[in-house]
User: Which sequence fits this backbone?
């Protein structure tokens, strides 16, 4: 599919919204996974005996 | 057009790298099968540790060093558009590194250097192993010299133009490697070689581990930077688009070099020889180095988004489907980023002081570094090889259909191998063990995961063989093709005024020196003014 010059210009000048969204999803996933490991796995194991 | 000298240099370096890789993959598959305990006839701690040491050395030092040197020569010649400076020095470096590899390989294969790739004392190896390792590193310094001189000469002749991005990153990587390798070089030359030759009776493992920590983390960025060069410089064009931002890419490379060096003590969180304050300092640095990695993820994804939209993709995620998934460079980038997300998360857990105690010295750590190194890094090495091979040999890639199959096999194998490895770590399986069959309830619960790991290892070996097959077939059976251009990506708009300080390598050297003095000065000096005790050797 061929794009017009104006469409190409718009793509090159627009903010990468999909990338921002993916980065937010990944960052949120990492925070949640970290919290799960800390509160869900690490703390329940208790202290060393 | 690449000159014949550069072609030969690059081809020889990459050939040595990939031969080492194939041998290491065979050993890796043997190890995952042996360790499972499913085939009792294979059980042998002696053979296992000789194998795992050879596997680690071949992958971490031989594959990487030769690949990075070869790719660096290609990058320098094609991005600066000039022949390699002082090819005799470059070949001398190659010869020295190869001699070192052979010298180290003999005791490794004879079981007289079963010290793993970290070779932590007081486990002792044959002196030939340490001498070989030292020569491999010294040979790579010749490469650093060639890269730095080429960059500086070009810069002197083109004072008003920025270094091409690929060469900027290669120059920084040469600088990084010079700084990085000093730690292990000091350990090997001043401690390990005299000790293994019997000139000294004891060794201070604390000092040795501190010096190795100097090298152990930044070496990961030495391995990763060529992968990032491909992500920034080849992927956007292969996808049909542009690099989102050249300036951000340069800042990311600079950040990797600055923050990657003074952080090695996160490998020593549980060691007694360093105080908690130093570990905290290095821990903070470890979190800082995640920033250039996140920036890289963002910039590469944004470049892919531009390409996907130029290919007709609409909506928030419609551009993903319009990317050329069959292109090995693009496919590798996507799979590499996926593994970087998973491996990066593991790295954040390792860097977290409390959580580190949960995974320290467990199978989790092996799973983590396989995901980052054998996953993200090596899959981009494949992509670079597929990109370079036709340009170096003058022949079309033997099969454009089998290359993506090979990459999917590698990705699937790595996920199947490393996911259970992480879980096993959380279940308490130690790393650096040759057998898991203790016949207790705990170890019985590990068995299903071991089976998945064997399947993963099998897929990885199949992928490695297919990779070697494609390269050899390209050399021997493919049709000749016209010269291809290096295909470096461009930005949508040329940058106008790149800040001069970005290329002030003297300044960055001084800053790195100050950071290293701050983070390693007292931790190393303490061994000379505190009374510490040496250890006698044990090993072969």
Assistant:
């Amino acid at each position: 599919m061929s794009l017009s010059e104006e469409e190409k210009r718009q793509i090159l000048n627009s903010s990468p919204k999909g990338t921002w969204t993916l980065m937010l999803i990944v960052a949120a996933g990492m925070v949640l996974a970290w919290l799960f490991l800390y509160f869900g796995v690490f703390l329940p194991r208790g202290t060393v005996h | 057009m690449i000159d014949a000298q550069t072609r030969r240099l690059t081809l020889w370096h990459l050939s040595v790298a990939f031969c080492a890789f194939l041998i290491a993959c065979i050993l890796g598959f043997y190890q995952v099968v042996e360790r499972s305990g499913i085939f009792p006839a294979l059980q042998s701690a002696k053979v296992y540790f000789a194998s795992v040491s050879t596997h680690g050395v071949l992958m971490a030092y031989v594959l990487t060093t030769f690949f990075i040197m070869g790719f660096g020569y290609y990058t320098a010649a094609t991005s600066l558009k000039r022949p390699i400076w002082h090819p005799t020095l470059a070949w001398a470096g190659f010869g020295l590194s190869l001699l070192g590899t052979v010298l180290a390989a003999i005791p490794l294969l004879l079981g007289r250097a079963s010290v793993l790739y970290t070779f932590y004392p007081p486990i002792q190896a044959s002196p030939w192993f340490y001498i070989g390792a030292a020569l491999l590193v010294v040979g790579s310094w010749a490469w650093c010299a060639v890269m730095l001189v080429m960059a500086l000469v070009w810069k002197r002749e083109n004072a008003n133009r920025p270094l091409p991005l690929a060469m900027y990153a290669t120059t920084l990587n040469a600088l990084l490697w010079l700084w990085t390798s000093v730690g292990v070089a000091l350990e090997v030359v001043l401690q390990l070689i005299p000790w293994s030759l019997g000139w000294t009776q004891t060794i201070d493992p604390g000092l040795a581990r501190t010096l190795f920590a100097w090298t152990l983390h930044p070496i990961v960025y030495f391995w990763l930077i060529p992968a990032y060069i491909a992500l920034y410089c080849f992927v956007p064009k292969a996808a049909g688009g542009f690099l989102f931002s050249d300036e951000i890419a340069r800042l990311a490379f600079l950040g990797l070099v600055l923050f990657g060096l003074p952080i090695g003590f996160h490998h020593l969180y549980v060691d007694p020889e360093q105080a908690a304050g130093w570990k905290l300092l290095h821990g903070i640095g470890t979190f800082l180095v995640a920033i250039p990695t996140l920036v890289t993820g963002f910039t590469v994804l944004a470049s892919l988004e531009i390409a996907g939209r130029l290919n007709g993709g609409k909506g928030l995620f419609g551009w993903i489907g319009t990317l050329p998934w069959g292109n090995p460079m693009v496919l590798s980038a996507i799979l590499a980023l996926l593994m970087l997300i998973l491996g990066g998360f593991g790295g954040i857990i390792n860097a977290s002081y409390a959580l580190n105690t949960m995974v320290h010295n467990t199978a989790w750590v092996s799973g983590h570094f396989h995901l980052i190194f054998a996953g993200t890094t090596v899959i981009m090495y494949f992509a670079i090889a597929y990109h370079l091979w036709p340009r170096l040999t003058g022949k079309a890639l033997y099969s454009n259909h089998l290359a993506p199959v090979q990459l999917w096999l590698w990705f699937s194998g790595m996920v199947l191998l490393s996911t259970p490895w992480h879980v096993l770590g959380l279940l308490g399986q130690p790393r650096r063990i040759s057998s898991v069959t203790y016949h207790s309830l705990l170890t019985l619960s590990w068995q299903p995961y071991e089976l998945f790991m064997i399947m993963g290892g099998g897929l990885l070996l199949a992928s490695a063989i297919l990779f070697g097959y494609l390269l050899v077939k390209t050399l021997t059976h493919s049709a000749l093709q016209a010269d291809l251009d290096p295909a470096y990506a461009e930005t949508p708009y040329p940058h106008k005024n790149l800040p001069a300080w970005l290329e002030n390598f003297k300044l960055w050297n001084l800053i790195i020196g100050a950071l290293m003095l701050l983070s390693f000065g007292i931790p190393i000096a303490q061994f000379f003014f505190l009374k510490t005790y040496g250890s006698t050797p044990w090993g072969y």
Chain B has one domain: 4-539. The beta strands of chain B are 123-124, 538-539.
